[in-house]
Amino acid sequence: xxxxxxxxxxxxxxxxxxxxxxxxxxxxxxxxxxxxxxxxxxxxxxxxxxxxxxxxxxxxxxxxxxxxxxxxxxxxxxxxxxxxxxxxxxxxxxxxxxxxxxxxxxxxxxxxxxxxxxxxxxxxxxxxxxxxxxxxxxxxxxxxxxxxxxxxxxxxxxxxxxxxxxxxxxxxxxxxxxxxxxxxxxxxxxxxxxxxxxxxxxxxxxxxxxxxxxxxxxxxxxxxxxxxxxxxxxxxxxxxxxxxxxxxxxxxxxxxxxxxxxxxxxxxxxxxxxxxxxxxxxxxxxxxxxxxxxxxxxx
Length: 299
Fold this sequence. Notes:
Layout: H1 2-9, E1 13-14, E2 23-24, E3 55-62, H2 66-79, E4 84-87, H3 89-94, H4 96-104, E5 108-111, H5 135-153, E6 159-161, E7 168-169, E8 176-177, H6 179-183, E9 188-190, E10 211-212, H7 218-231, E11 234-239, E12 241-243, E13 249-251, H8 252-263, E14 269-271, H9 274-284
Helix pairs in contact: 2-8, 7-8
């Protein structure tokens, strides 16, 4: 048994992607079949970015909005920058051929749940409030969303974005975290509107710190990149629409300026999908009593 655990811990093993099986991570015990229980991490202590990189940045976009396809993807592709798109099922179905093309150019498609359940305090959560969910219901809906995405696009998501950044089900003394449900199914879980970059050496991959990209000017975004650089952090960003401005909209000029900045090697920015950087983090942070995995580069 010990040999099996050590073998799993040497790298990220994504089992049976075509059938959307659960994910096993370095330093984590596999989750047994049956009720989902919390994973047991071994605490990492050190981490280094590859070669000449000083900071990691992941751009992510939620809800499969039309402007992402019409404006965002063409801009990103013109710079060769890859992003993660956490799709909602209904709008994804409306433009399947376009989302297939997004995958074909190297972007990541992630799971954003089946019904986008958030707290009952939001008016749009009527009939799908997290306070009324059980862990079993959430698990079933995440699996169904994975199945729908795999059936439609031919890929099984390996990362997840918490709708509204909220990670609980139930109320009061019966409230429970559904982070373990996510951890047993995905390489990483992305949050929303948090206050700092993710710390790769010590982070829980199932709860990535995520900062808002919507509405930022390039000057504001550059400050966040530089703050992450000082700590060797992983800046995970989340946006929605892409356009000239407005509510929940990533500014075109900001996105273009960032891509130009990231493309310059002297800036030491590794910009890539949540899945690619997440795998690197899982494989390359040093755990006490273990040898660091050999660097395989940034791709």
